[in-house]
Design a protein that fits this description.
homodimer, alpha/beta, Arc Repressor Mutant, subunit A, D-Maltodextrin-Binding Protein, domain 2, six-stranded mixed sheet, two-stranded antiparallel sheet, rod-shaped, DNA-binding
Amino acid sequence: MPSKLPPLSSLRVFEAAARHGSFTRASKELGMTQAAVSYQMKILEERVGTPLFLRKPRQVSLTETGERIAPVVTEAFELLRAAFVMAEDASHNLLSITTVTTFATNFLAERLGNFQILHDDLAVRLDTSMSVVDFSREDFDLGIRSGDGQWQGAETHLLIPAKFSPMLSPDLAQSVGGIKKPSDLLKLPLVDASDPWWKLWFDSMGVQSEGLRGNKRSRMGIQMLEARAAEAGQGVAILTPDFYRDSLKRGSLIQPFDDVCHDEGRGYWLVYPKARRNMPKIKKFRDWLLNEVKEHCN
Amino acid sequence: MPSKLPPLSSLRVFEAAARHGSFTRASKELGMTQAAVSYQMKILEERVGTPLFLRKPRQVSLTETGERIAPVVTEAFELLRAAFVMAEDASHNLLSITTVTTFATNFLAERLGNFQILHDDLAVRLDTSMSVVDFSREDFDLGIRSGDGQWQGAETHLLIPAKFSPMLSPDLAQSVGGIKKPSDLLKLPLVDASDPWWKLWFDSMGVQSEGLRGNKRSRMGIQMLEARAAEAGQGVAILTPDFYRDSLKRGSLIQPFDDVCHDEGRGYWLVYPKARRNMPKIKKFRDWLLNEVKEHCN
DNA sequence: CATAATACATAAAATCTCCTTATGTATAGT
DNA sequence: ACTATACATAAGGAGATTTTATGTATTATG
């Protein structure tokens, strides 16, 4: 439908030449030679079918037609420039992160304020969702995901290894006279008995745990739900202690055993596209986050 | 000052792709392959520093940033398209002519109305000036000039040969008892004795005309002034009869001798740039004018 | 459920645009 | 007259853009 436009490069040149009333000055602005400007204007005039400049002795001036279109072309280019300044600005100053709920709730939420203060030029958009990150399909700069760190094309940093240990509410522990040895836990309901971590943990403690099949994939991403259930006294959950420092300190959860299992290789990872690893906003967040993790989780 | 824009070709592609929400459809509109669109969008995204499209299974959709700039880019391109429609329109439908005064007054003025009626899609701008036509320096489609038809780079058509014969007002003729033979004219003042045509004409009539030097260049372009002087009875002028049919018919001028001299090669010419000889508006005017001349000046 | 069809990505090669260099012309200033 | 300025033009080449060919993922279909 839209009628054919002249070569766009010639329009850019026209815009500058019209603004300066001079091919030479336009060429300087555009960082090209005067010959190139002359050439482009010839192209454009041929295309439009009518001269746009009058060649006076030592200067050029616009013809009637040129005079008519020049301001419109200038306006159009200003729109474009404005649009891309906006875009680049957004690209530099808007940081959007997608993270698994657990990490957002138990780690990021309470610390993000710090980051914002540190980098008040960055606006942060935080999205919590569990789905796999695919940066080519979703509009995020960085993601935090649980897994084994194998995401192709992505730069990854292990934030928190998948360590785990049982936790429960003090009341629940009291209800069976306290938890003295691992097998005491089996007297209580497990929040999610199918979580493979249970078997791993009991195995490592040398406790026979028939019936714990561990046939499900780990659901680290939604640990948080299990944690809430445990806090509410509904059962024992197997959780990552690093995330529940606060609850443990407050006493809303207790960790009966210091023994922490480690699901080697798995954990919470920071992920972002390799190609964008050098963007300032990405560096800023990465550096900040890695430092927070280091400081906070021994 | 203006910040650098991304490659313009990629913008054109982006505009179409955003509008269609599809690389394939955009490629069809732009008359290129889908691969080319994909490539251009990659370029643009690299340049802007952020993705503009999300690659979904069998479609693409704009990212937040893409969404933000798309309407602006579309608007800019619409401005450009509008500007060039205007320009092309003007280029097609505005005919500007520069002509020597004599020809305008004595020939064109009374006939141009006809042309306008015949081609009411063309707006005619008529400029009368004597200066030499240089289409690269002045904004005209066609020129009518007197001379020998030697204008380089120009297409030329002889309209009216430089024929000439003395003319004067009837009263003036009466004042010397009428003009019977050429030498009678010498009893009267010549409007411009230095006009070389005088010598040519007297010579051709076999009349000795000492004192008529003819050292000036012909000033055909301003014959009209001499004609007015002659009509006012101020002297005898040497004029091109074709231009003064009306005055002769009205009787405000008389041409005492049918003998008409011919300054071979010289005359009134229609001139226009060779490069533009095929423009419809130029053809229309040329054909009309040549026909008018043929019909009117035997 | 296998197959075909659709939409986009990517690599390599061909093409073509655009720019530069070099030079020429005309004009204004000294 | 001479120099400097501004634009035009031609030739050559670097680089950008496009196409061709192929791959991948997803949806639709028999």
